[in-house]
What we know:
- Strands 1, 2, 3, 8, 9, 10 and 11 form a seven-stranded mixed sheet that branches. Strands 4-7 form a two-stranded parallel ribbon. It has a two-stranded antiparallel ribbon with strand order 5-6.
- The radius of gyration is 19 Å and the shape is globular.
- The two termini are 33 Å apart.
- The longest helix has 19 residues, at 107-125.
- It is an alpha/beta fold.
- Helix content is 41%, strand content 15%.
- The chain has eight helices and eleven strands.
Amino acid sequence: MKRLILLFLLFNFAAHAQQKMVWPHRKKAVIVLTYDDALASQLAVAVPQLDSANLKATFFLIGDFTYQTIRQWRTLSKRGFELANHTFFHPCINTSENPVASANYTPYTIVREIGNMNNFLFAIDGKTTRTYAYPCTETTVGGKDYVDTLKRSDYIKYARIGGDNDAIITDFKKLDPFRVPSYGLEGNNTGEQLIDFVKNVVKKGGMGIFMFHGVGGDYITTPASSHRKLLAYLKKNKKDIWVATFQQAMDYITRANNR
């Protein structure tokens, strides 16, 4: 009898642990649209398409600002888009495409740069809570992991990593808020491929995060037509899909986990 009771309790515990997240307004899943590196094509192409679909997104910015783009980013923040931290200089291991070498950093210096970038972003949008994306999806600098140093700094609330086309999050109890996986696009994706990812997220009742770079231009480019098809699908299926910013989605998950 004791063994049966124990098995019953274990079964109930496992079933509870695997329970699907209940999303706002009983939606079936959440999709987060994120864009890295503060690229010109994002302002010229992605934002107008997002506006047309009445959708909001998260932009992980680096320090590549001009007087004109600062005004544009500030306006987007006022309209509900999230401006997030991607460091100022975007250091990476591979310097062939990223001229600032992360090998020359320490966990302390990269976190200090993240803190300084927070100050730049505060000057743009006046906000004090910030999320983060690791440059080149690398969580190490100078051969050392800096995630724990970043956690202790209190500069960042949540952090996004990359870059897996199967990065559908369903186990929210085990989700590390400083290692949140995303679907890292490699460029030239079709609209059908992007929509298929969304369909799989909905099927599993989870969260899917897109990691875009260029849209209709720049590099790691998603064709403008593919991006438009994705947004049209999200708009058409808004009854079932919650399209949130990264911070909105993670705040909701954090509250749900703490109930």
